[in-house]
What we know:
This protein is an alpha+beta fold. It has helices at 2-23, 50-54, 59-71, 91-103, 108-120, 155-160, 207-229; strands spanning 29-37, 40-47, 77-83, 126-133, 141-148, 161-170, 173-182.
Amino acid sequence: MIEKLFVKEGIKRVRLNEYFEKELERAGYGGMEIKRTPMGTQITVKAEKPGMIIGKDGKRIKKLTEEVAMRHELDNPQLDVQPIEVPELCATLMANRLAKLIERGWHFRRAGRSLLQRIMENGTTGCEIVMSGKLKGPRGRMEKMVEGYIKHCGEAAEEMIDRGYAIAKVKSGVIGVQVWIVRPDAERPDAFRIIKKEEQEPEVKEEGEVEEVKGNNKEKEEEGDRDKEE
């Protein structure tokens, strides 16, 4: 059945993402994209430090390619590494950073607010951070921090929002971290602007045309006087 095929492909994608998160943690892993090509499977990995993934003379990226082909059953995988120009605009990278801060002992509100401020300072349209788990006390709870413009549903939300998720392992249990970022270049469907109508300047006639108009007016007045006398 075609449904089983979609589920199988989704499981492969999740497992591959978890593998990259573990292996490329020090390189600042920021997500991946998979595309099917006639030559094989093209995997684009986004990272803050691409040099650590490539390695000396490309040895590490060759090793990663071999392990991916052996463990994840992909047809002729080809790894491509792209650098992340602005780390604060990558939701996956920011979620991993927030999880690491919580694991180091930062208070969840302090860590969330500092990260939210850094993200908004880089020209982001909006950001939402959600932390859930045993944040304070034995009972689980949820903490949400929102700033700017956020769209939660619709086709536009899928296109304009970058989503990231990470897990922080602490003594009290597991804390889930979710980061949503609206990119600065995202086009808002409900945004509008008022265009002012340009005022048309009066046409300025040349001096010769004005004199001709005056002369024609005088001739018409003289003809009118003659008609009255007759």
